[in-house]
Amino acid sequence: MSSNSDDIQAAGSDTRPPMLDRTDYESWSQRIRLYIRGKENGLLILQSIDQGPFELGTTRNTLGTTPEGSVLLEPERSRAYEDLSDTEKKRYDADVRATNIVLQRLPKDIYKLINHNIKAKAIWDNVKILLAGSELTKEDRESVRILY
């Protein structure tokens, strides 16, 4: 039998990502990944969480050519959003979306600990460390429980 809070959480599952339950990080992780995959550019959003943000890089504009045929270039500068191709803009936008999705479903106390991060991968990794333990396997966690 489900509780009212389970029913409310299930009712909102199509429109909002699942709220993090501190006692079950692995389940939340799986559910939020499924939620993201169902979104437009979901694979790009997951890529942002798993691999880090898209790097804008640098560019140089062409000023012209010399009489000898050499190309004259401006000094190198950081690329801006306007410099990106349509594909790159989708990846950049997915980074922003990934950060928003992950942050909006964290409890306030966890959000306060990691709100200085603006990159989805850093947020995701910190939540994982806080709740899932570092690199402990399931067997390691079970053995620790038995000892205490």
From TrEMBL:
Region of interest (Disordered), residue spans: 1-22, 57-86
Biased segments, Polar residues type: 58-68
Lineage top rank: taxon: Eukaryota
Basic and acidic residues compositional bias, start-end: 74-86
Name listed for the protein in its UniProt record: Integrase, catalytic region, zinc finger, CCHC-type, peptidase aspartic, catalytic
Organism in which the protein naturally occurs: Tanacetum coccineum
UniProt lineage: Eukaryota, Viridiplantae, Streptophyta, Embryophyta, Tracheophyta
